[in-house]
Design goal:
Structural class: alpha+beta
Order of helices and strands: HEEHEE
Strand order of the largest sheet: 1-2-3-4
Radius of gyration: 30 Å
Number of domains: 1
Strand content: 15-25%
Largest sheet: 4 strands, antiparallel
């Protein structure tokens, strides 16, 4: 009878140890999952911020080029080499001289031309749309 009680105790201890191991494994898996999700969100936030900075650089570039020459119509600016860790990074800048009644009235008052500038900043691989971030803006500027 003493031997039977020992076996029952050993079995109960074994079950308790297995339950503790399962709880520890579950907690570890949950912590790992949260860590990976946090890392992915941080990386995505970094990519969004980088795209926004790229868009701001495009705005400065377009403004400077229009100050230099009123013939500036835009450009495709590939900055992939400067941002080597991303698959692709580029800016598409388009400048259009505004024609029409409102543009003419504004321009004759100041003898300036009015331009509409459209900028699209793209960061990431075009084939993998879920890894591509794109931001755009349109604004008017007086020469």
């Amino acid at each position: 009878m003493i031997q039977s009680t020992r076996r029952r105790r050993r079995g109960a201890v074994l079950i308790a140890v297995l339950a503790c191991l399962m709880i520890c494994a579950s907690l570890t898996a949950t912590a790992l999952h949260q860590s990976l999700r946090s890392r992915r969100e941080t990386k995505n936030s970094l990519r969004v911020r980088q795209t926004e900075l790229l868009l701001q650089a495009g705005m400065r570039r377009a403004t400077q080029q229009l100050q230099i020459s009123s013939e500036y119509s835009g450009e495709h600016w590939d900055v992939s080499e400067a941002l080597a860790e991303w698959d692709a990074a580029n800016l598409q800048i388009e400048c259009t001289r505004l024609e029409g009644l409102q543009a003419d009235q504004d321009a004759t008052e100041t003898n300036d031309s009015l331009f509409e500038v459209s900028i699209v900043a793209t960061l990431g691989n075009a084939e993998l749309l879920d890894h591509q971030i794109q931001r755009s803006t349109t604004f008017t500027i007086r020469e």
